[in-house]
Design brief:
By secondary structure, the chain is mainly β. It has two domains: 92 residues, SH3 type barrels, CATH 2.30.30; 103 residues. A hairpin with a 6-residue loop joins strand 5 and strand 6. The longest helix is centred in the N-terminal third of the chain and has 20 residues. It is globular, with a radius of gyration of 21 Å.
Length: 228
């Protein structure tokens, strides 16, 4: 009997240890993608079937399909920006004309894409946009210069959202380190902005000190093709 109780206790401890070691699924959704995710990379979708973006709540993505299935999906050949892994899943963001869609996807359906580890200053420069929010990057004395504007709720109020807009701005200069750069505003050092370069995308987050109420630069920015 004593031996049986010992074995049961040992099994319980092992289960606790496994649960503690299991990776926790973080938020994987549009608004929080740049701030809640990390290890950003690019990947191409492979396989014939639709790859649905799975939800990040109520036990998802561990429940799998169809319990966690969202409306958005991607197909073979689509490019995703990927974030953290959780079990057999990886957080993915699919940029589209409406901004983008995020959700957990099966990691085995992703083929990693190469990204330059040390982009040149010219690779960074240009006009980048995320909806109404913009960043203009240029070169100066071997460093990057950024000028940016962000708005909340949007640059142009509508009858449905007549308030604002609240404005955020940044003007700064910094030297990139590999694929990342960290800016501090030249006039207001409390405003900080971090960006990671992924080819034609910038993953941007700030410290909530760069503008008026609710204004954030957070988002996935795309290079405007005509300025490259």
């Amino acid at each position: 009997m004593t031996r049986l109780l010992f074995l049961l206790a040992l099994c319980s401890l092992s289960a606790v240890a496994v649960a503690a070691d299991a990776p926790a699924a973080r938020d994987c959704r549009n608004g929080s993608f740049p701030t809640e995710q990390g290890d950003f990379a690019l990947a191409r979708v492979i396989g014939n079937a639709r790859l649905y973006l799975l939800a990040d709540s109520d036990g998802c993505p561990a429940k799998g399909e169809p319990a966690c299935r969202q409306r958005s999906y991607v197909v073979a050949g689509d490019t995703l920006i990927t974030g953290h892994a959780a079990g057999g899943y990886r957080c993915g963001f699919y940029p589209n004309a409406g901004g983008g869609s995020a959700g957990w996807v099966q990691a085995q359906r992703l083929q990693p894409l190469p990204v330059a580890a040390a982009p040149t200053l010219r690779d960074w420069t240009g006009h980048w946009s995320n909806g109404d929010d913009t960043l203009v990057l240029g070169e100066q004395d071997g460093q990057l210069v950024v000028t940016g504007e962000a708005f909340w709720p949007s640059a142009k109020p509508t009858p449905q959202r007549p308030y604002g807009p609240n404005l955020g701005q940044i003007d700064a200069i910094a030297r990139p380190m590999g694929t990342t750069v960290h800016f501090k505003d030249s006039d207001d050092a409390s405003c900080e902005l971090h960006a990671q370069w992924l080819g034609d995308y910038l993953i941007v987050s700030d410290n909530s000190e760069c503008g008026g109420l609710n204004v954030r630069f957070n988002g996935v920015y795309r290079r405007q093709a005509h300025t490259r």
